[in-house]
Amino acid sequence: MSSNTGNRYVLGQNQYGKAENRVVKITRTGNDGSWHEIRDLNVSVALRGEYRDVHLTGDNANCLPTDTTKNTVFAFAKEHGIDSPEAFAIRLAKHFVHSQAPIHEAQIRVEEYAWDRIPVPTRRDQHSFVRSGQEVRTAQVTYGGNSGRLEVISGLKELTVLNSTNSEFHGFLKDKYTTLKEAHDRILATKVTGRWAHSVVASGDEDFDWDRSYKDVKRRLLEAFADTYSYSLQQTLNQMAERVLDGCPTVNEVRLNLPNKHHFLVDLDPFGLKNDNEVYYAADRMYGLIEGTVHRDGVSPVIATSDWVTG
Ligand SMILES: O=c1[nH]c(=O)c2[nH]c(=O)[nH]c2[nH]1
């Protein structure tokens, strides 16, 4: 969106909303309500539409307060529950666009923090949890706009994985600045940020099982990482994305950002010791950053390539 102010400047893309609403929903089940389920989300709202006046003239008539968007997130958790990050985000996005004429498009971004149950064999009630440290689940829903599209991008971040062998890197281009030694057996480690876009079919299906889809994609990413005999992290990236597209017909596109978490062999010669690929120094920076999108033929990619992902 852009609008000519009649002056020298043009108001370009703009959006607003409340970011990082941390909503935790406890659902009590069982006869006496002593079995608890938990969903722990970080929800950000961005609204787009007729906001020329609020920026240019100070007329706030079209401006639903960010405070209201925050309240809506918490009220919806109570009124509708949280079935999954995607379902919750779709419900919110549709609500904002359908309830206020000036709002043309809504984008909801969600992070979910997972909790595992602490098993207590002596207790029938279950309300104790330990934060599960593996990864953060993400979802981004965009609804509305000129085409009235519903776009759902699921994802994860901070999923750290390591292969202690079956990784080589050699035969690369060399110039006068190249000092890297060819590696025929190295550690391959990365902290996966992955995003995958769902087809319209899945996005529009109110009964679509987002949690199951998420588990399926994550399992495939991990299995492909473990199965691939790697000649570069780029090749591993492609294998991981293809494994998802192979097994998940409702996923059209996968984007992966893979920092190469370098492990350098430590020189033990000064101590008269031989380092037979056993002792490494794990460097936390700098890191190679390998990024790419793999999508079905004929599908136009929608996942932003400009998002800055750090290692
Ligand atoms: O898997 C890798 N890909 C690269 O492009 C690269 N570059 C580098 O220095 N090490 C590696 N490893």
TrEMBL record:
Keywords: Oxidoreductase, Purine metabolism. This is Uricase. NCBIfam families: urate_oxi (TIGR03383). Belongs to the uricase family. It comes from Streptomyces beihaiensis. Catalyzes the oxidation of uric acid to 5-hydroxyisourate, which is further processed to form (S)-allantoin. InterPro entries: Uricase (IPR002042). It catalyses: urate + O2 + H2O = 5-hydroxyisourate + H2O2. Transmembrane segments: none annotated. It holds the Pfam family Uricase. Pathway: Purine metabolism; urate degradation; (S)-allantoin from urate: step 1/3. Its EC number is 1.7.3.3.
